[in-house]
Specification:
Chain lengths: ~250, ~190
């Protein structure tokens, strides 16, 4: 094992200059010694860092676990928040009517199909929103909406979008985002309303609105309706390739 | 090859940047969950896969030599895919045909980044396996050596002379090196 005493001294910089020169000559002449040195160095590096990495890994796992727990907690809170928001928006009687409509729609269409749900999970995404002007009160509402939206907290984002769009109804991008948020929360009727307005408007987001309307049908298990909408997306429009890909899968 | 702007997410994992790590989870868990469920798992499996994948990328990148040169989402998916294959094997479910993830483009750069990560994983696994195969006395000595500031302190802690501890350490490292060198897995890893 004398060889490994030399390697140990070399790796730790404990060799005299003359001894080091001789050893490096041996390394150049003996590939097997070079191979042993390389493995030794990597093991040395691995052992040297293992404690630090283990500690860092625990800290990172804790952060990820926090993210998992936060999302679960948010999902549970959101389930309780929805009826409150409905009352605030349209009043008790209107809310009751809306809930009845939603229940009827869900009963009529809710035929969950695992493939459709999985496809929906794969294709439903929305690029993060950004706000450049945060100077006045209206834009601060938008800022709140965007912050929640980008965090994936759609239930909290919707009321802020409601307030913002009430003041600035011509903001197609944010109306599209609210439509997407409503879709994500399962409020299909309200989502459809927003998406149709954007789709029939003159903004740059008409094609995207069509795409999300198709995803809405997909999520509700209405495969034929989804296919019909997807087939209306033209070659020159955004989402065409995704639409064709999804059509093939359906 | 140039660094991809998404390298910030790799750095976020290395530094445990809480806000960005949580953003990674929020932005990507939906698609990964959908894919895991489609391929025989459930929501909890997806969280496990995701956590394993991120900590694994952390270990690879903590060495300082890993640079992301492709989009993070495509790379993350490839790592998750590998992790899910391992989990399925551990559950005794070998040979499951997995679907591709059509939303990501697995181009050459993604493959190169994934191969680099896989090589690091394979090395780590081999080193851990051989360390576990080492005799108890050697394993304990190396643990003390690599968790103590200096060899003088190690000698004092164990009640041996400095020269003896140095000699024993090099012997144990020699044994470990030979265990690695003689293993079939070593030949498959290009060190």
């Amino acid at each position: 094992m004398e060889k490994y005493e030399q390697i140990e001294a070399y790796v730790n910089g404990l060799m005299e200059p003359a001894e080091k020169t001789v050893f490096e000559g041996q390394l150049a002449a003996e590939p097997s010694l070079k191979e042993q040195l390389v493995i030794y160095q990597q093991l040395h590096h691995h052992l040297q860092n293992s404690e630090r990495l283990a500690q860092g890994e625990i800290a990172l796992k804790n952060t990820i676990q926090e993210a998992i727990d936060e999302q679960k907690a948010m999902a549970s809170i959101q389930a309780k928040v929805v009826p409150m928001r409905r009352r605030w928006l349209v009043g008790i009687s209107a809310a009751a009517a809306v809930i009845v409509v939603i229940l009827v729609v869900r009963m009529a269409f809710f035929a969950p199909h695992i493939d459709n749900q999985t496809l929906y999970a794969q294709y439903s995404s929305f690029e993060n929103l950004s706000v450049t002007d945060r100077s006045n009160q209206t834009d601060s509402l938008l800022n709140i909406a965007v912050t929640f939206f980008n965090k994936g907290d759609f239930k909290q984002a919707i009321p802020a979008f409601d307030a913002y769009l009430a003041a600035k109804p011509d903001q197609a991008h944010f109306q599209l985002a609210r439509g997407y948020a409503l879709l994500q929360t399962g409020d299909y009727a309200a989502a459809e309303k927003d998406l149709l307005i954007v789709e029939n408007g003159a903004s740059a987001y008409t094609s995207q609105a069509t795409w999300y309307r198709a995803l809405s049908q997909l999520k509700q298990g209405n495969t034929d309706a989804a296919k019909k909408i997807l087939s209306t997306i033209q070659k020159n429009e955004e989402n065409y390739e995704q639409a064709q890909e999804l059509l093939n899968k359906l | 090859m140039s660094v991809h702007p998404d390298h910030i997410y790799v750095e976020a994992l290395v530094k445990n940047d809480t806000a960005l790590v949580k953003k990674i989870y929020v932005n990507h868990i939906g698609r990964i969950r959908g894919w895991v469920i489609k391929n025989g798992g459930d929501s909890n499996d997806a969280d496990d896969v995701f956590q394993e994948a991120l900590t694994s990328i952390y270990r690879t990148a903590s060495g300082g030599s890993f640079t992301l040169t492709c989009p993070f989402d495509a790379f993350l998916f490839m790592v998750c895919r590998n992790k899910w294959i391992n989990m399925l094997e551990n559950k005794g479910r070998k040979g499951v045909t997995l679907t591709d993830f059509s939303g990501y483009n697995a181009d050459k750069l993604v493959s190169q980044n994934t191969e680099e990560w896989q090589l690091h994983e394979a090395k780590e696994t081999l080193f851990k396996k051989k360390l576990a195969a080492l005799g108890k006395a050697c394993r304990e000595l190396l643990t003390v050596c690599y968790t103590t500031k200096s060899m003088e302190e190690v000698a004092a802690k164990l009640g041996f002379s400095y020269a003896y501890v140095r000699k024993k350490k090099s012997e144990c490292m020699g044994q470990l090196t030979e265990l690695v060198r003689s293993s079939p897995e070593y030949n498959q890893i290009n060190m």
